[in-house]
Amino acid sequence: MSQADLAHRVAVLEEVSKIKELRQCRFPAAGFPEINVEAVLDLFAEDGGFEYLNLSKTKGHKEIRHFFTDGPINGRFLLMVPAYVHVNDDLRTGHGRWHLLETLRMPSVKTGRNEPVWCQCAYEDEYIKVGDEWRFQHYTCEIRMFVTHQEGWGEKMVDYEQFFVDWRAHLAR
Asked: What is the signed CA dihedral for 155, 160, 164, 166, rounded to 10 degrees?
């Protein structure tokens, strides 16, 4: 292996480490203890966005700001685990897959109060380096489990009717 090849491999590993910091440290920090919309915006490229399947899709800082302003989620604890992170040879773009397990509180239309909730999601990320910082170009989140702690995940894995009705109304404004 040449010195140039070795140097490139080390550079890729350094960039992977920076992307892990984006998803595992900077992303959760923007939402705890309450969502800091400006901190969230700093995680995205100007034309970046995301999609929460079956819930909402955004593109650009204006739509991202609307999504997170006055959102109902109040996180408590999360564990973000990478399945893989890949940096392209240009060292400026990449993609990854992550799994989230989170406990949080969310308003329930069923009970009328904030309920303790278990959430499990899979994220598919696209990254871009802006200056010296990695940002999200786009991510897709598939909510695989969103249920109350009391009811558990035996009968219904994702309860859209109980938890996302108010948020969908908020996003429609």
From this structure: -100
In this prediction the pTM is 0.87
Residues ≥6 apart with Cβ < 8 Å to 57 = 49, 50, 51
The helix (run of H) or strand (run of E) holding residue 23 is none
Q: Tell me if 139 sits within 8 A of 126, measured CB to CB.
A: yes
**Mean pLDDT in runs of 10 for the chain (173 residues)?**
87 93 81 76 94 89 85 72 95 96 85 88 96 96 90 76 72 69
Q: How far separated are the first and last CA of the chain, in Å rounded? A: 57
Q: Which amino acid is it at 158?
A: V
Sign of the CA dihedral 72, 76, 81, 87? positive
Please spell the DSSP secondary structure of 26-80, one letter per residue.
IHHHTTSSS--HHHHHTTEEEEEEEEETTTEEEESHHHHHHHHTT-S-EEEEEEE
Tokens 């999609």 belong to 51
Longest dimension (CA), the chain: 64
